[in-house]
Amino acid sequence: MKAVIFEMDGVIVDTNPHHRIAWREYYHRNGKTLSDADFVEHVSGKHNNAILGHLFAEKALTPDEAKRLAHEKEALFRELYHPDISPVAGLIPFLQALKAANIRTAVATSAPVENLDFVMDALNIRSYFDVLLNESMVSHPKPDPEIYQKAMTLLDVDPADSIIFEDSMTGIQAAKASGALVIGMATTQSPDELRPFVDDVAHDFMEITLDRLTQLVKVF
């Protein structure tokens, strides 16, 4: 194992409750409702363009319109989440352990750069990562594996030497397609829902050690 790559939402920070609140409010402002089932099907793990396509299904958005609407929603999310932002339990000690072991690290998120910067700086964790990737740095969003393939290229590691932490089914599809081992974080869905699709499952980083990752690599 030479590298560990993290999704951001649902892995580094458990943002989904606040994204749910923000999207629900944004749907409401645009005359729609967003049920929990709709959130899982149309929002969780999806790129903003796909979500906006669901919200504004009755009309075709221009790229500029989609960009403006996405910025509006993400600004609303940051405003709502700022008072409550905190890392997933055990994250900081785990990052410190990876750093001490000279294991390379990256964040590969479908979120915009503004959200990535917001999380990195609010938690003061930017220095723990060698590579930071956001939505603007790839042409094909998850479930396409491009963002994870690019992260491994920038880290100069092979998929066989990489472990990815993901939480959503869309992200897990992307991570598995990249060829890396995948650990499902049970922040968005239950361990039982994740287990058939990943190589290991954890509730948070309190359960994760370097020894556990090493053993996982040996098994596969």
Set down the secondary structure blueprint:
Layout lengths: L2 E4 L9 H14 L6 H8 L4 H8 L7 H19 L9 H10 L3 E5 L4 H11 L7 E3 L12 H10 L6 E5 L2 H9 L3 E5 L5 H4 L5 E3 L7 H10 L1
Parallel strand pairs: 1-2, 1-4, 2-3, 4-5, 5-6
Helix pairs in contact: 1-4
Quick summary:
With 220 residues, the protein is α/β, with parallel strands linked by helices. It contains 10 helices and 6 strands.
Q: Can you characterise this structure?
A:
- The longest helix has 19 residues, at 63-81.
- The chain contains ten helices and six strands, in the order βαααααβαβαβαβαβα.
- α1 packs across α4 (63-81).
- β4, α8 (169-177) and β5 form a beta-alpha-beta unit.
- It folds into two domains: 3-14 and 87-219, 3-Layer(aba) Sandwich (Rossmann fold); 16-83, DNA polymerase, domain 1, CATH 1.10.150.240.
- It has a six-stranded parallel beta sheet, with helices on both faces.
- By secondary structure, the chain is α/β, with parallel strands linked by helices.
- The chain is globular.
- It has helices at residues 16-29, 36-43, 48-55, 63-81, 91-100, 113-123, 146-155, 169-177, 191-194, 210-219; strands spanning 3-6, 104-108, 131-133, 162-166, 181-185, 200-202.
